[in-house]
Write a structure and sequence with these properties.
The structure holds two protein chains of two kinds.
Chain A lengths: L1 H30 L6 H5 L5 H11 L5 H14 L11 H36 L4 H15 L2 H15 L17 H39 L2 H9 L3 H39 L4 H10 L3 H29 L1 H7 L1
Chain B lengths: L1 H10 L1 H18 L1 H4 L19 E4 L5 E14 L4 E13 L1 E11 L3 E9 L18 H37 L1 H16 L2 H10 L7 H31 L3 H8 L4 H9 L4 H24 L11 H5 L5 H6 L5 H24 L7
Helix pairs in contact in B: 2-4, 2-13, 4-5, 4-7, 4-9, 4-10, 5-7, 6-7, 8-9, 10-13
The chains are: A mainly alpha, B alpha+beta.
């Protein structure tokens, strides 16, 4: 039950945070000289009625703080307004957010299943040739700009023709069987996830190595060894459990980093995710869409951190007992 | 301390090379006008997407010769429906040192018209080809480096004073001030940083001079980075403020601001140096990302990011690989800063084993 209390407390804490974020982003966007309805006005398929409805909904004729409150009211109600192309913002977000979450989850799964073992090996064989090689690879991975690496991958894809380029589905997606659909989506996911994987892997591996080194140096490991516990048990039963805890906190940060890093990768690969949506919205100065996707990105980031904290509570008894 | 850090750097194999590479890059961009064969405004509209000039040291009949190159001439190939470039084997252009070229000022002061290398009038030398506007990619790389390699440092000069002061005040006073200030910083951190970055860049008015735009990009990059830094400083200040020397200052009647600026913040110096070297790369990457999207440094100014913008087109990346060179330079610069930062951290903070 303790854990539910903690989750409830954390959820309450996010409310003021979201209010401040919305205030910051609302005023940043509104101090700019951009007319939020410019695109709507120029679009001939938008009737004067819809336009008037938008002006009324956003209270554009009233002072800025009134505008903020009316925006906040409709946001809480779930009414996010229309994009400059006349579509509903909420349906646009519904279409894009799952794609970004899918990409992020695939990348996190890949980095964890490769980075953690590599970190353990590197720490266990500290300063061996293998560890040195990993250090060099990690430095390289951390230094490549994501968009540049994405471009190199595009060249690779086009030259070999092994992977489809752009989008998440092929043009004949709707005619495929369920298995075919899965294969098609995963083929499209390979390149973007590979780019993000390479970039976030190095940090994770280095961190795991550092944690592991610290734990392996501690007294209880020395004691376990002195007691005659087998090396396998020392590493996997005693050391690993303690070394992995800080990594869970890092999961939240990783999620944040991936959201940002994904924007450029999504842009290069024409992947239909939230990052590319916000980018397109910014380019078209589509205020409704920018505001909504910014808030969604923030909510996703906060949710990622929350999940990481809850996981940490589940795995680390020390935190469970003090925080609950 | 500087000498000690330098000694330490030169002991480390990787850090030594990183230092040398960075020093080389900075010297090159400092003297970019002299080293580049063309000026930053040079453009030859008839020569777009010319491949890199081939440089020969052996003549066609197999004799050793001074390095020379041929001009490219544009030809229309009706079968392929496109223009292609062929070498004009008629005239040789010898590459000579210190040739006369466009006028410029060394370091912005001394007028000069000699360039490090070049060919005589009528010839062209494009060591890394040209871009869509017929501008020499090699020259633009050097001029672009001026922006890409300095913008991070300039942002840091805004981030660090703000972060130090903000974190210092927040940690020192504690209580409700601390609470409010930290909630605000957390809110900034809760927005995915790249989303915030592109929004800030996108609301910049379009009619600005390139200098104004450059300054505002610096400010925007700083706005993203200060919050995380301020939080760490606050944490450090929290632990420092209870030490005896701070109590002593208080009883002697020093003002709060004086205690924060003169006694508490200097204690964080080694962390600041580490954080500075380790955060330069992220600013370089952020600037290049922004410019790559067309929201950062604008044409005709060059930056490594906006030069890569052309690499967004398929035909360019497949048939004109020389347009990708800025990416390798960003990579080299970031890698070097990372390696250097690691070495400095190991020296100043030997306890930290991270990375």
């Amino acid at each position: 039950m303790k854990i539910w209390k903690y989750i409830g407390k954390r959820l309450l804490q996010t409310i003021p945070l979201l209010i401040i974020v919305s205030l910051i982003s609302f005023f940043i966007i509104r101090i700019s000289p951009i007319d939020p309805l410019a695109e709507l006005r120029l679009n001939p398929s938008i009737s004067q009625e819809t336009l008037d409805k938008e002006i009324k909904r956003l209270n554009l004729d009233k002072p800025i703080y009134v505008q903020y409150f009316s925006w906040a009211k409709s946001f809480v109600k779930g009414d996010l307004g229309y994009t400059s192309a006349g579509e509903k913002v909420s349906s646009k977000l519904k279409e894009r957010i799952p794609n970004t979450i899918l990409l992020t989850l695939v990348v996190i799964f890949m980095t964890w299943s490769v980075g953690i073992p590599l970190g353990i090996i590197a720490a266990y064989r500290k300063e061996s040739a293998f560890d040195r090689m990993l250090t060099i690879i990690a430095s390289i991975g951390m230094a490549i700009p994501s968009f540049f690496f994405a471009i190199l991958m595009l060249i690779f894809a086009v030259k070999t023709g092994w992977f489809p380029v752009g989008g998440l589905t092929s043009y004949n997606f709707n005619e495929m069987s369920l298995v075919g659909k899965c294969i098609d989506v995963s083929k499209h996911l390979v390149l973007p996830s590979l780019v993000l994987f390479t970039i976030s892997l190095s940090g994770l591996q280095r961190q795991m190595r550092a944690n592991m080194l610290e734990v392996m140096d501690s007294d209880y490991i020395k004691f376990a060894r002195a007691k005659g516990v087998s090396e396998f048990k020392v590493v996997f039963k005693h050391a690993l459990r303690n070394a992995v805890n800080p990594m869970i906190t890092l999961l939240g940060f990783e999620f944040a980093g991936l959201l940002s890093g994904a924007a450029l990768t999504e842009y290069v690969f024409q992947y239909p995710g939230l990052g590319r949506l916000i980018l397109e919205a910014v380019m078209k100065s589509d205020i409704n869409l920018v505001m909504a996707s910014l808030m969604m990105g923030t909510i996703m980031l906060i949710a990622g951190n929350l999940i990481a904290d809850i996981l940490l509570m589940l795995t680390d008894p020390r935190i469970r007992d003090t925080k609950g | 301390m500087t000498m000690e850090i330098l000694q330490k750097i030169f002991k480390d194999k990787f850090a030594k090379w990183a230092f040398i590479v960075l020093a080389f890059l900075y010297i090159v961009i400092l003297f970019a006008d002299f080293i580049a064969p063309y000026s930053s405004t040079y453009s030859n509209r008839d020569m777009s997407y010319v491949p890199p000039s081939k440089i020969y040291t052996i003549t066609e009949d197999g004799k050793l010769s001074l390095p020379y190159t041929y001009n490219y001439i544009r030809e229309y190939e009706p079968a392929l429906l496109q223009t292609i470039y062929k070498q004009d084997r008629g005239t040789k252009y010898y590459i000579k040192p210190f040739v006369k070229g466009e006028k410029y000022k060394i370091l912005g002061i001394i007028p000069c018209d000699r360039h490090l290398f070049g060919v005589r009038d009528g010839g062209h030398i494009y060591p890394l080809g040209t871009d869509i506007n017929g501008r020499d990619v090699f020259s633009r790389l050097l001029f672009g480096g001026r922006i890409s390699m300095t913008i991070g440092f300039l942002s840091l000069f805004i981030v660090f004073p703000i972060g130090l002061l903000y974190g210092g005040i927040s940690g020192y006073f504690g209580g409700i001030i601390d609470n409010l200030m930290m909630r605000f910083a957390e809110a900034i951190m809760a927005i995915p940083s790249f989303y915030l970055l592109i929004i800030l860049a996108a609301i910049l008015p379009s009619g600005m001079t390139s200098v104004q735009r450059f300054c505002l990009i610096v400010v925007i990059l700083a706005l993203i980075g200060w919050a995380g830094f301020a939080r760490v400083v606050r944490g450090m200040v929290l632990s420092i403020k209870n030490e005896e020397f701070v109590q002593a200052e208080k009883t002697m009647g020093a003002s709060n601001l004086r205690i924060i600026l003169k006694h508490i913040l200097p204690q964080t110096t080694s962390y600041v140096i580490i954080a500075m070297t380790l955060s330069v790369p992220s600013y370089i990457l952020a600037e290049s990302g922004l410019s790559f999207l067309g929201l950062g440094i604008q044409q005709p100014d060059a930056s490594w990011g906006n030069m890569l913008k052309e690499a967004q087109e398929f035909t360019n990346i497949l048939y004109r690989p020389w347009l990708l060179t800025p990416g390798f330079l960003i990579f080299t610069a970031v890698l070097s800063f990372n390696l250097l930062g690691d070495a400095i951290r190991d020296f100043l903070d030997p306890k930290s084993k991270v990375r």
